[in-house]
Amino acid sequence: MRIRFGEVWERLNTSYWFVPTVMAALGVTLAFGMIRLDQAVSSDLVRRLGWVYRGGPEGATGVLTAIAGSMITIAGLVFSLTLVALTLASSQFGPRLLRNFIRDRVTQFVMGTFLASFLYCLFVLRTIRRDDGDEFVPHVSVTVGVVLAVAGLVMLVYFIHHLATSIQADTLIARVASELAAATDHLYPEDIGTGTPEPPAPPKPTDPFDTVTAGEDGYVQIVESDRVMAAADRWDVTVELVHRPGHFVAAGGPLARVWPAERLDGRLADEIAQAVVLGPVRTPGQDVEFVMGQLVEVAVRALSPGINDPFTALTCIDRLAAGLARLARRKPPSPYRLGRDGRLRVLAEPVRFPDLVDTAFNQIRQYGRGNAAVLIRLLEVLADLAAGVAAAPNRDALRKHAEMVARAANESLPEENDRNDARDRIRTMSDLVRGLDAPANPPT
Question: Is 260 helix (H, G, I), strand (E, B) or coil?
Fold first, then answer.
């Protein structure tokens, strides 16, 4: 349930309507509260407070009308500027990066400020009475409206500054890199049962099993591991999750395999299927490859002939290397999880470091062929990563990529000095990896 709530909260964060709607409701609530306060405050007190508006009904109507008109006009301006920024970001960085702009709190808060101020003025305007013998001017409410107008002007200036900053490549890349770090920290936020240092014997491929299938097309967004574990314990079965978050599943495709086959009925199949949430798009909640792919997309677009911005690609390579270095220091969880009785209940294959290295560098190497700066930087970050990786399989994955980059450099770089630079770096990395792989106490 907590995972589903987190996904709903993520969807609300990546929408333009949620925060402005909440703030608009607060603006209406503030209007009613200020009107009640005006009804309770005596006219003598208003005259003694020099900072409170003390004009008549015509003046109050004019002030609130001017504020309401300007606030809704500026709200339209903010909306137009935001659409322009989204259009530029989509063409420059890619459509998948738009969610980082949409979930931007500053833009949502600024939009909500102007909408709240507009509604506040409208609801206060309706209370002004100018009939003979029944005149009512909400002096405090009008004063608060003026304060909201001043705050709106300050927010407008800050919004323009923020917008100009947020569409810069380095700022956007840094924001995605922060999201990558957060996704790495929460790569496996929930344990599926109790891990075990000794891998138990999984079911044999020849053992009869039954399959839980998907009812619709979509990407795996969430796997509620606690529900799968509880179902496996309750029905005394072993469940293998076929797909991890980020994988696409066609309708009728397999979601999970269950042993023994005869224990899978409609109720158990529904429990497992409901624990795997499918959606039309990938989400970053449990999918670190999706976040990493955003940086890759920015780098690949920067290397396209239409944009031709290798400096942005180099920045993306550095951020990807930092994310991989963060992940390399973490011990990957076991795919085997035991239930309360100590028996194997769930098999959930985690994303491995070599898989993420492929995600990070394959496309950049392919699109960066012929660019000496990109290929040499790839070799440099691969060498730096190899120096901090303890597991031999992870170093092998880095060495494999370094060899592919070196071949690409040798085949695509026309300048001999550039090729020599690439050879020097691959030689340095090979010496480093050879030293790390050597035994601590070689035989004499």
Answer: coil
DSSP string of 133-164? TEEE--HHHHHHHHHHHHHHHHHHHHHHHHHH
Q: pLDDT tens across 353-373, in order?
A: 899 999 999 999 999 988 899
Distance CA 121, CA 358 (A): 56
Domain shared by 262 and 372, yes or no: no
Q: Which of 300, 298, 362, 310 is nearest to 98 (CA)?
A: 298
Segments in the chain below pLDDT 50: 188-192, 440-444
- For the four alpha carbons of 429, 432, 435 and 437, in that order, the dihedral sign comes to negative
Are the beta carbons of 124 and 38 closer than 8 angstroms?
no
- The number of domains in the chain is 3
- Do 292 and 404 sit in the same domain of this protein? yes
Helix (H) or strand (E) holding 88: helix 57-93
> Domain range for residue 386?
288-333+351-437
Same domain, 293 and 421: yes
With respect to residue 183, please indicate whether it lies within any of the assigned structural domains.
Answer: no
